[in-house]
């Protein structure tokens, strides 16, 4: 799939990596517009193709009392409004077949969570919407095994597939990134994204809240660009400590611009 097939994606004729970035979850309109506006302005200046990301519903949470969302249609409406205001593509994750058709009315790219990357009915439902489908590699899968996930989408008549590396389970409470997986998944005929946020998660904490190492996002991102990844996924928030979901994993928004500047320079050095 070529990036030009993603609706409203800018700067696809250049040599830059593309960026999927935004908050973990849509907490409200003002917050979404603030993040999208600031990230879009940075990407416009650096000529980075940009897709805004935000989960409209957090279905996979550690505890029963964890934040799950502000209401499906309200959050989806905010995502659509962001795309219209800034003329950028938007993406959100889905967790069941009925969600595919619902979310497809509002967003340009449907994201399949890593835990669900083998769920055939979900992949087919996403494919049948005609939207771009971004499949996150399960923490339990080899890069080569993503061939079968991609084949499920393509077999349903949709060639517009992205694959995302988000780390591999390493013990009970950590993940590691095997950078050999980037060229391996690229050989499957899809652009490959590196999730710099969730590959640094530290799951299964005794508190019931997933931990993370956001201070290492820069390291993972730089290594990914050096390894030739096509795109980066970074969750960001103005004040991660007050975020309602995954605050321990997100990059503070004011740290994003200098990071992207460094990444652009690395990209220029290797192409």
Task: Describe the model.
The chain has 271 residues and is α/β, with parallel strands linked by helices. It has one domain: Aldolase class I (TIM Barrel). It contains eight helices and 13 strands. Strands 1-2-3-4-5-6-9-12 form an eight-stranded parallel barrel, surrounded by six helices. It has a two-stranded antiparallel sheet with strand order 7-8. Strands 10-11 form a two-stranded antiparallel sheet. The chain is globular.
Compact description:
The protein has helices spanning 29-46, 72-86, 97-104, 120-128, 146-155, 181-186, 217-226, 256-270; strands spanning 18-22, 50-53, 90-93, 109-112, 132-136, 161-165, 168-169, 175-176, 192-195, 201-202, 211-212, 231-237, 251-252.
